[in-house]
Amino acid sequence: MNHKLTEGLCFELQAQCPSTGARAGLLHTAHGTIETPVFMPVGTQGTVKALTPAQLQDDLDAKIILANTYHLYLRPGHELIRDFGGLHEYIRWPRPILTDSGGFQVFSLSKIRKVTEEGVVFRSHLNGDKHLFTPESTVDVQRALGSDIMMVLDECLEYPAPPMKEARQSMLRTVRWAEQAFRHYRQQDTRQALFPIVQGAMSAALRVECAEKLLELHAPGYAIGGLSVGEPREESLAMTEITTPLLPRDKPRYVMGVGKPEELIEYVARGVDMMDCVMPSRNARNGCLFTSEGKVIIKNSRYRDDRAPLDPNCGCYTCLNFSKSYLRHLFLAGEILFSVLGTLHNMRRYLDIMKKIRQAILLGDFPSLLRANRAATVIGID
């Protein structure tokens, strides 16, 4: 079937759980179709740390990866990447790419940035050079990168957020920036999709107001931001649950920066289609591995003589070939191979969870899977 891409995307809803709102769909892009719900591996600087594009594609079958505008803008530079034919060619990744605007990274640099109505003035964490991100410039940078899905510049508040008056001013600034970004975006070629981001701190009223205002943009998809900034997970889920019903049923919904393995299904249960998080790769490099039997801290002495695979229920290269004892040895010896094997496994764990969730939605078994996950979480299993 041919799918006409409108502003870079076509979202096809295949099934929806009537009791929870969990959705399964197909997200068609110029670089391929993504089965949703989907977890997107994070390739901040044009690489998912410790993995090759071939491993991501052939071993893990990742359908889409995420890259970061802030980091690629500073190094090697979006113009250089454009001259190479865009990020797909530069990093040799043929499948879809989502780029975030760099807003989260800029706002994490609280001591070296200043927010104005025009945008954000910040200093590079690499050499201290001063730069300005505006709603328009971040669209232009992402156009040069050539990503399939681009994000607007937004203001991400820390947790706990400032008083309500200031939080609302910040939310309204995010809306104004989104409006500016979309005016600029629609004056040019729209083969790349652009998503606005719902902000509003941990305030239900602000989240609702922001979502309602952003709906007027008739965007090809919508994101929920400002989560995973230190708030209790219950609040993150609550803000998601408030927001997703307000967003269009026929557009993809993306919650940024979440979550732990046992939390993925909770976001899907609240109507989320897309997620990303650095946790599977970052935790792997630090020796924290996620398995179907729980979390494994590989440096623990209990694994010194352990001949068993990391996860007997996993079919990844790591689990099919190596013992926990060997993985522990690699980690303690500081060998690069540990990061490769650990990341490969953790990413496979996340993607397998998402496949299982998607299949349950399509078969009508999602509520039972959700109950089983909640029961396992209560007793301390991932």
Give a nutshell description of this structure.
The chain is of the alpha/beta class. It has helices spanning 53-59, 69-74, 78-83, 87-91, 103-108, 135-145, 164-185, 204-215, 233-243, 264-269, 279-285, 317-321, 324-332, 336-363, 366-378; strands at residues 10-16, 23-29, 32-36, 38-40, 65-68, 97-100, 113-115, 120-123, 130-133, 149-151, 193-195, 197-198, 222-224, 253-255, 274-276, 288-291, 294-297.
Label the overall shape: globular
**Which fold name is given in CATH as the topology of the largest domain?**
TIM Barrel
CATH uppermost class of the largest domain: Alpha Beta
Task: Count the domains.
Answer: 2
Rounded mean pLDDT is 95
Query: Using only CA atoms, what is the Rg?
Result: 20 Å
Report what the structure shows.
With 382 residues, the protein is an alpha/beta fold. It has two domains: 10-277, Queuine tRNA-ribosyltransferase-like (TIM Barrel, Alpha-Beta Barrel); 284-346, no CATH class. Helices cover 40% and strands 17% of the residues. It is built from 15 helices and 17 strands. The chain has helices at residues 53-59, 69-74, 78-83, 87-91, 103-108, 135-145, 164-185, 204-215, 233-243, 264-269, 279-285, 317-321, 324-332, 336-363, 366-378, and strands at residues 10-16, 23-29, 32-36, 38-40, 65-68, 97-100, 113-115, 120-123, 130-133, 149-151, 193-195, 197-198, 222-224, 253-255, 274-276, 288-291, 294-297. The strands form five sheets. The protein has a five-stranded parallel β-sheet. The protein has a four-stranded parallel β-sheet with strand order 5-6-10-11. Helix 7 (164-185) links the parallel strand 10 (149-151) and strand 11 (193-195). It is globular, with a radius of gyration of 20 Å. The relative contact order is 0.13. The mean pLDDT is 95.
